[in-house]
Amino acid sequence: MPETTVMDKLISLAKRRGFIFPSGELYGGLQGFWDFGPLGVELKNNIKRSWWKRFVQERGDVVGLDAAIVTNPKVWEKSGHVEGFADELVECKKCHHRFKADDIANSESHMANGRKCPDCGGELTQSRKFNTMFKTFVGPVEDSSSVAYMRPETAQNIFVNFDTIRQSMRLKIPFGIAQIGKAFRNEITPGNFIFRSREFEQMEIEYFVHPKDDEKWFEAWVAASHTWFTDMGLKADNLRKYEQKKEELAHYAKRTIDIEYKFPFEKGWAELMGIANRTDYDLKAHGLKYRDEVSTEEFIPYVIEPSAGVDRAALAFLLDAYQEVEGGRTTTTESNKEKEIVLRLHKELAPVKVAVLPLSKKEQLSSVAKDIASSLRNKFVTMYDEIASIGRRYRRQDEIGTPFCVTVDFDSLEDKKVTVRDRDTMKQDRIPIAELEDYLTEQLRT
Ligand code: ATP
Hints:
Elements (H helix, E strand, L loop, with lengths): L2 H14 L3 E3 L11 E3 L1 H20 L4 E4 L4 E2 L1 H6 L2 H4 L1 E6 L6 E3 H6 L1 H6 L14 E4 L3 E3 L9 E4 L4 H6 L1 H7 L6 E10 L14 E11 L4 H18 L7 E5 L11 E8 L6 E11 L1 H5 L4 E2 L6 E2 L2 E8 H12 E4 L14 E4 L10 E5 L4 H14 L5 E3 L5 H11 L3 E5 L1 H6 L1 E6 L5 E5 L3 H10 L1
Parallel strand pairs: 3-10, 20-21, 20-22
Antiparallel strand pairs: 1-2, 4-9, 5-6, 5-7, 8-9, 10-11, 11-17, 12-13, 13-14, 14-17, 15-16, 18-19, 22-23, 23-24
Bound molecules: adenosine-5'-triphosphate.
Adenosine-5'-triphosphate (ATP) binds next to β11, β14, β17 and α11.
């Protein structure tokens, strides 16, 4: 399959099956904004739940936070964002398209033709700084005294709450504060589907350590982050660690390693998440420090920051899971001998865990199947489907990554058993209805 078309196929599947579509599409959409439909919201919730479980609930040293999106503007002044959270923007004098200066400098057309517009070859303006924070006004008067910003990252809210949280939870270094939430950036060139949007979600941890331990914790967080992605199903071959060179580092960072995914666009590899050693830059900027109660030593902790995008992770999981099987993968009774799509999402991430399918729409079967579906709903996201042939219904479920399909047939009325089909192995097991919930729980756990 030519790589360039995988994205198009995924975008079309995402829309057709209710994962993701352009926001406000009825009115032509709004560039850089996306809506997550019924299956998209389940997928995103599953990603966030898995990350939170791994990095907050299962550890004793990380606590959570859900801070406000619109923050006191002083936070962004002190953090340096008002002054420096900017991209260099250039504009084509002919077609008026705008570009990030960095993108132009790295583009193939730049290498070939010098500094020209990649779209029309026109002359480009000098670059100028463009602050990518979204501004808003708080209260009824729209003047400079009421300006506030939509947070461009979740990190700063963590720093400014450092002391309050440390005291309330009686935390001792090393410890971390995690937050999942929306961030907003007025990106000059949003694109590549949900890879770069103007409204997105981040999963971030600020992990506070003694300055002498920073390297050890930095390495530990790089390893733990990489492991989470592979545990959740990303193929190791599609992931790599890229250490930023000195000249690429943000002004606050001592070291940064990006975990990159082999996306099917641009140069292939692009940042999925970053792990930065932010030193004491942020706590210093906000005038915060730490005192060890036992040794009475006072110091400004260093901060290790693993920062991942939920939407970018969702895109990587979807791309990695997307598979087309030529000529069909199903048995002869199910087969349509056409290309079939299977979304081999990790079971924990799959939006729907189980589909209940009566063999036919006959009342005898559908009433049993509906009862089964409604009892399974207490435990799993369950879909009921009685429309179209059983083969088509299997394919519909494969396409959205449902790990298990439960079929109710005429024998079920006699032997009180159903057939459970596994998405990946296509193995079919005959299971007593009374044991179905336990069976699925076990299968989804392993
Ligand atoms: P990039 O270089 O791609 O612009 P960044 O280095 O500015 O990313 P960070 O500020 O480190 O990104 O943000 C952490 C994570 O948040 C990124 O690794 C990415 O997963 C996600 N992210 C950042 N910007 C966007 C965006 N515009 N749309 C979607 N996700 C984003």
